[in-house]
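Tutorial sheet, problem 5. The two components below are modelled jointly, 1012 residues in total.
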Amino acid sequence: MAAKVLIYQCSYCSYLTFDLLSQYKVSLQDNIFLTDLPCTGTISVNMLLEAVENGFEKVLVLGGTGNDCRFLKGSQRAQKRVEEAVKILREIGYDKASIAFYGLKPGDVDSLKNILNTI
Amino acid sequence: MTKSYLVIGAGAVGLQIAQDLKENGHEVWLVEESTMPGGKFNSQKPLEPGINLAYFSGTYHPGDYLFTSKAVSLMASKRVKVLYGSKISVIKEEEGKFYTEIIAPKENYTKVFDGVYFTPGFIPFNPEEKAEYLYGINNFVLTGLELENLLKTGELKKNPPEKVAFIQCVGSRNNGIGPGKPYCSGFCCLYSLKEIDLLKKVLPDTIVKVFYLDLRLYNKGAEKLYQKAVENNVSFIRNMISAIKEEPKSYKPIIRYLNNGRFKDELFDLVVLAQGAELSPNIKTLLARLNITENELLEFYGTPENPHQIRPGIYFAGSFLNPMDGADSMVSAGAAAFPQINLKESVQSTMEIKYFTNTGIIFCNCRGSLPVDELKGTVADLPSITISDCLNEDELGKVRSFLLDNQIGKAVFAGCSKIKIMPGLEKLAYEESIGARFEVVNLKEQGYSLYGKEKFKAIAQKLLAGALARLKFSTTPALKVKNDITFDVVIIGGGLAGLKAAEALTEKGVSVTVVEKQDSFGGKHKNKVIPLEGINLKEFIEKIVLKLENRGALLLKNAEIVEVSGAPGNYQLIIERFGKRLNINAAAVILATGTQNSYGHYRKTSQIIFQEDLFSSADLLSQCDSIGFLQCAGSRNDLNPICSRNCCVSSLDAAIYVKEKFPEKDVFIFHQDIMAYGKYEYKYLKARELGIKFVVYNRGQYPEIKSIGGKIQVVTNENYLDDVVLDLLVLAEGAVPNKENEKLAELFRVGLDEFGFLRESHQDISGGYFPKWGVFVAGEAQGPKTVREILSSAQNTAKNVLTYLNQLQNSQLKVNYSEVIEEKCAACLTCVRVCPYSVPVVINGKNVAYIDPISCQGCGICASECPNKAIVQNNRPHQGVLAEIRVLAGEGK
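Model answer (structure tokens):
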């Protein structure tokens, strides 16, 4: 069975890009799960690690780019949390899971396709 | 006073106006010819596939998002009647009242209204009328919208064309004989470029040639698209194409155009026509019944005081008034609604909110396209209901009674995207005074369409179970009352936009403070005496200032904002003036900093001056025999890449002014693309009729200017034209963002766009406000605008401020906010530090943090940063997210 992937979307940017995906004839495998947060800045290290603990081998946080975040600095915060969580995984030497942050503009389907291709 | 209004056309503009009027307590009837709302923004309409993408200005964005939630929340209101598939059969004006008869699918109505809003938009010009383009005869000739659809469905990839030609202005800028309109349709250059961008993404090797008259890319977002097209080797050829021929064997289209002075026939695989805008014949009939002819509409530009009212009670807005793109039409909608918006009296709320405890599921099969029935009862044993259409009043009624009958306080909506439906659902519950919390499971866009038919059921069950798990931890929304506010609005910037907004607000009884940094009001326009767009701006501004003084507005010159504290609704501003500090409280702040002039690489001499110098002294014109205008001196260059919008109109106005007064004088305009978009085209036509000479120079290749024997010589490099010798050359300065913007963005915590203008909440659809209410933008601070556009924008912002003040002083249901658990709070100030909007404060004496629910934006950054987890994000508690992850990770359901 394929590795389970959890994607945290931002309600204001990547959620919309996912809405657009199907218009571009993209489809998802059923090992990929989507959930959304009001702002990716609200994500905690706990949410990331708990996902890994529950069996997700890839956790992606898709926020906005630096200068067009709805909550001004939400994406930057999310990025920092992800770095923190990655650091913890590295410290305990757990290499079966990966956590990553990507910033993309709302409606940027091309970048999203590229990200999904790397899964 | 409550009045009743008829809004004709439920497109983006009609919906916005209906919403504004309803919010202010008026009764609104919205009549729409088609069976769905959304107009051009609706991508689900079978007749106009894909049209949604084309008409937005800067971004690729599905239009459905703009209107669905608005339409749902309108239909949830009892003061609004929405009639689809309906027609107005009779309309009569009698003593300021409008007597109408409406034929609706179920019932016919007769009704008397106090006012009528015309917002029917436009219909695309039918290219079949211009038979020379072979549209409808040759299969290789398409409209832009058809191309867009082929690109989306992937049809074009199967049989990729090698060479594609785009022909602009089909049906627009046609002043001769035959079908087509004389005006410019405004948005077609932009949408052709967007289609080229899409085309190049899908088929990067396609050769693309664009045949155009002027590339009217006046939007701030459009320049980037143009640069990208140039990088992608798209050729732009300035040529009017008179006919398309067929290659006899393959039937492929041949275009004949002028290439270096010679005709060239070129074969293309595909020709794309950019259709212009036209009026719907039904609307023409309606207008005729009100004694308004089509020409009257085309010539209508409104007065500066009332830009949208043609007669008392009859208003025009959106692209019906003037061809315009999505962003401009939203501004126009707000400005048109403004006269009807008043400051409400503050009423102590008597509303009692019903809090129910049951959880339920609302399924929507989206007009039969989602197999939700197979999910029913498989996830949880909860009360549920299935509706078929969220844009149907009866179906929404079912949801209403479902909530009431089953006493539902928390519900999962399983249907389409959350962005579309959420605000509507919340409004629906609020209208029934139910304090309900909703979660949305996106079964459509992010379910069925993404995972496909086979995987749908398993995935949908998990998503639904996850949403239910998460909902357990959410709290119900709370009613927050805030009554004791001051109606003080501070306007930063005393230019045209700031003053006009101040005038509009004081008219409605709001007390206003205008803070201007310089020692006089009026900004860039304060000395302009030559009429610009029919307005003598110097007099106009003096009149407004006088009016404001009479109304008791506080006008502060030489003043500057130095400090901002407090939260939206209750700002404390510190203003510095002559070294003294002044404290002012404000409920709302309008940023109207305008733009600064950019002079490019040019310097002023006695014979080379800038537009600002010309407009402020009309005498200059009488002293010289030949005058030239050089466009884009300070725009569209390396220093300022975008179009300043205002300068072509200014030059046309000045040129017409001088030519009408002194017909014997020679007037030249040197330009790249004359940005006489929309109805401004009539100015261009008039200028040509008067004998003003237009000389084109290529983009970036500014003509050489020499000073010879007391004259100015402009080297044209054209075969047909000798060098032009002038007495006076007027350069068009450009508009660049105000340097103050950076400081203000930091002070008020708003964003800047890539050029340095203030960034609205959504470039296309917001119509002049920031994500955070309480701070607003008016005029050119948001992007370059013409004088009329500045006035519209100021009125629209005044409308937004009034709506905001009305919301503030009346009770409202707050759904998205975070709350401090006082027992846990250690007053460590982490939340105060991390909040992007400075909402949390530590209350003196109590030593705990407090988050004002009205100002809180609900992002939850504080909740995740709080070291002691003393903050709960009510709309998405962290425990809920964790519970959802466990459900999604688990096997089975």
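Marking note: Chain A has four helices and four strands. Full credit if you identified this.
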